[in-house]
Design goal:
The protein is α/β, with parallel strands linked by helices. 43% of the residues lie in helices and 15% in strands. The chain has two domains: 139 residues, Aspartate Aminotransferase, domain 1, CATH 3.90.1150.10; 230 residues, Type I PLP-dependent aspartate aminotransferase-like (Major domain) (Aspartate Aminotransferase, domain 2, 3-Layer(aba) Sandwich). Strand 11 and strand 12 form a beta hairpin.
């Protein structure tokens, strides 16, 4: 075999997603297709995004496009904004600028875990956790969310922890369920991780995956576990709130509550590891643009209208759907319980939604609300008719 064992495992874990992604790229070229698969934009970019990039593409110094790691100006803006959002005093030196959340998560795995360590991940959860862990020679350990509510099951996490557990990954607001976890969840998880760390004689870290942190509905409060469990690192991506996943910009932040000695050790490793994982720093122009990009956001009022339109139509027709508290996804159970058959029936009508098999949930489906309202209005009759067809065949 030409490939390494970890490359083989990573490929196997991502194959179903990669195949689906490639097929959706082809489908998306059809202007009549109603594609609700990935969180891609279906309208032109926020005006401030290209304006900021264009403004900072003009060089002001001879080293404008020289090698860049984490630019101090970007770190300072992020630390200030993050401190205001989370109520913790972040130091600019504890911010590593990265190529989106992908880069931040890769950096966290390299920073905190050794080959063969176990990493607890949520199920259903983002479908790239497992492939990334396999590629890093780490062991993904899936833990089911609570059925029906999709709450974080803290007791299940506690049962999954072993002597090899090094990191627990949490995601709030959660992809694909749209859940935003309350303060009480983080307090309970903190107690579990503290007790387990002492029992195992080895610190268990928490990676808080927060790319949807600013995409929340109905005034729902966001609390980061970093405020409750000191041994937390946070990853973030601007691609979600800007609705521009192709503009690769994010960061990894060390919680200011990490004890000073350990935080200094981690801080000193951010640059060399950022280099070692493949120069994981964002392009210079993206970093120069951070002050402007921090002030931009997709239209939450319009996104709320889209959520209410789609959720209301499906729930009113008898679909079992979770009302999202955050993210731009709608998560539901397929009529009849066979998500692939449901998605196939929709595809015959030119409507494309993501089957839950990509999230290890073959009975569910995910709809991206980044589509236009026109697309939503055109798709709803098909969604209702497919459900009605199933009812007639039962």
């Amino acid at each position: 075999m030409a490939m390494s064992t970890r490359a083989t495992a990573a490929k196997a874990a991502v194959d179903v997603v990669g195949s689906y992604f490639s097929r959706m790229q082809v489908v998306a070229s059809d202007p009549e297709a109603l594609v609700f698969a990935f969180g891609n934009p279906h309208e032109m970019a926020l005006p401030g995004l290209p304006a900021a990039i264009q403004r900072h593409a003009e060089p002001l110094t001879v080293d404008w496009f020289a090698y860049k790691s984490s630019e101090r100006s970007a770190q300072e803006v992020v630390a200030s904004a993050l401190s205001g959002e989370l109520g913790l005093e972040f130091d600019p030196q504890d911010i590593a600028m990265t190529q989106g959340a992908f880069g931040a998560i890769s950096l966290a795995f390299a920073l905190l875990a050794d080959a063969g360590d176990e990493v607890v991940i949520p199920v259903p959860g983002w479908f790239c956790y497992a492939p990334m862990l396999h590629a890093a020679d780490l062991v993904p350990v899936g833990v089911d969310l609570a059925p029906v509510t999709f709450d974080l099951d803290v007791d299940a996490i506690a049962r999954a922890i072993t002597a090899r557990t090094r990191i627990v990954v949490v995601n709030s607001p959660a992809n694909p369920t749209g859940r935003v976890y309350p303060r009480s969840t983080w307090e309970a998880l903190s107690a579990v991780l503290e007790e387990a760390s002492h029992a195992q004689g080895r610190r268990i870290w928490l990676l808080s995956d927060e790319p949807y942190r600013r995409i929340r509905f109905d005034g729902i409060e966001f609390t980061s576990p970093a405020a409750h469990y000191p041994w937390t690192v946070i990853d973030y991506s601007y691609g979600k709130v800007l609705l521009a996943p192709g503009a690769r910009l994010g960061y990894l932040a060390l919680s200011p509550l990490i004890p000073a000695v350990e935080r200094e050790e981690l801080r000193d490793a951010l640059f060399p590891l950022g280099l070692a994982i493949g120069w994981g720093f964002p392009d210079a122009v993206m970093q120069y643009s951070v002050p402007e990009l921090e002030t931009l956001s997709l239209d939450m009022a319009e996104l709320t209208r889209k959520r209410d339109r789609m959720y209301g139509a499906l729930a009113g027709a008898g679909y079992e759907v979770t009302r999202p508290e955050g993210t731009f996804y709608l998560w539901g159970r397929a009529p009849g319980g066979d998500a692939q058959a449901f998605c196939d029936a929709l595809e015959e009508r030119g409507v494309y939604v993501m089957p839950g098999s990509l999230f290890e949930q073959p009975h569910h489906f995910r709809i991206s609300l980044t589509a236009t309202m026109t697309m939503i209005d055109r798709a709803i009759p098909h969604l209702l008719e497919v459900a009605a067809d199933h009812d007639r065949t039962e």
